[in-house]
Structure formats: C-alpha cells, structure tokens
Amino acid sequence: MSEYLLRPVQTLGGGQKQRVAIAGALAEACKVGVIKAVQNLLDISEVTALWVTHRLEELEYADGAVYMEDGRVILQCDAASISKFIKAKQSSYIDRINS
C-alpha cells in the first residue's frame, strides 16, 4: 500500500481507493505497535508493543517473550522464563568452549 501514500486520491481507481480506505481503517483500529527500541514504549499506552531485541536486559519490560532460532519459535512464555532459558544456554555454550 505504500506506493499509494504520496499519490493524490483523485488519481486512484475505485478498487485502489477501497484498498486504501480498508488499510486506513485497519491501521486506525490497530492495537499492536511495532517499535524499533524499547524506549519507544514511553509513547505507547493501551497497545501491545512488539519489538525484536538481542539484549536480555530489555526482557524486564516485557510481559511475554518468544525465543527464536533460525526463524523458528523455540520457546514462547513469560519473559523471566525466556531469560533463564537463554542464560542456561549461554552457560552451556561457555562450558563446552572451556572444556
């Protein structure tokens, strides 16, 4: 839909106008915000926020989390359990390197 963003409405066909109207309605009613950084949560209230991170310390801001490897969901649960899982995985990896 982004190709229609800067086009004047008069230049759109009937079907295109419908699609743009539907996209606008869906975006307005959206209850999920995709954010780049956890700091952006300061501007969001009453909305589910979705962000990708590699920083374990950011999990403290999450109600739930998903751990993925190679594009596959490995674990989905509360943030504290994800944090424990990752720390155990890191510890196991470090033990293998040191032995």
TrEMBL record:
InterPro entries associated with the record: Molybdenum_import_ModC, P-loop_NTPase
CC terms in the record's Gene Ontology section: chloroplast envelope
Superkingdom, taxonomy of origin: Eukaryota
SUPFAM superfamilies hit by this protein: P-loop containing nucleoside triphosphate hydrolases
Listed name of the protein: ABC transporter I family member 10, chloroplastic
Lineage: Eukaryota, Viridiplantae, Streptophyta, Embryophyta, Tracheophyta
